[in-house]
Design a protein that fits this description.
Elements: E1 5-10, E2 15-16, E3 22-23, H1 30-38, E4 40-45, E5 59-64, E6 67-72, E7 75-79, H2 84-93, E8 101-102, E9 119-123
Parallel strand pairs: 1-4
Antiparallel strand pairs: 2-3, 5-6, 7-9, 8-9
């Protein structure tokens, strides 16, 4: 018996381009959310104008208090802890993203650990 969810409404996407392609991943749960989205008959994405970018993997504007700040947030890539250093090197040298970094935690020491105990690498790309 296969699982089929009738409708899935999701509000936490972080970047959306002009063709409605999306990137998810700032919360660290994107693997499970992707599995649920794939098992859904009707998927509804809710995002405001602050999530719009011309190219995925480039700058995004986040409103903080009364000012708008620009953050460079790359494509979030989940990686098993054992392989993160090699994957990070590949992002730098093979994919040409020298600013790719391991996502480090703010309120604790060390990297962010996803709900599946993986690390997340942010891989920013230049426009276009």
């Amino acid at each position: 018996m296969s699982l089929l969810i009738s409708i899935n409404i999701h509000t936490a996407y972080h970047r959306v381009d002009h063709e409605l392609n999306c990137i998810k991943g700032r919360g660290g749960c994107h693997l499970r959310e992707k599995v649920l989205a794939e098992a859904t008959k009707t998927f509804i994405l809710v995002a405001d104008y602050c999530k719009n970018v011309k190219y995925l993997g480039t700058n995004i504007h986040y409103p903080l208090s009364m000012f708008t700040h620009i953050f460079t947030l790359g494509v979030p890539i989940k990686v098993v802890p054992f392989a993160y250093n090699k994957v990070l090197q590949n992002m730098h040298h093979i994919l040409g993203s020298p600013r790719a970094t391991l996502w480090m935690a703010v309120a604790k020491a060390g990297p962010v650990v996803s709900n599946n105990r993986n690390f997340i690498i942010d891989v920013p790309f230049d426009n276009g």
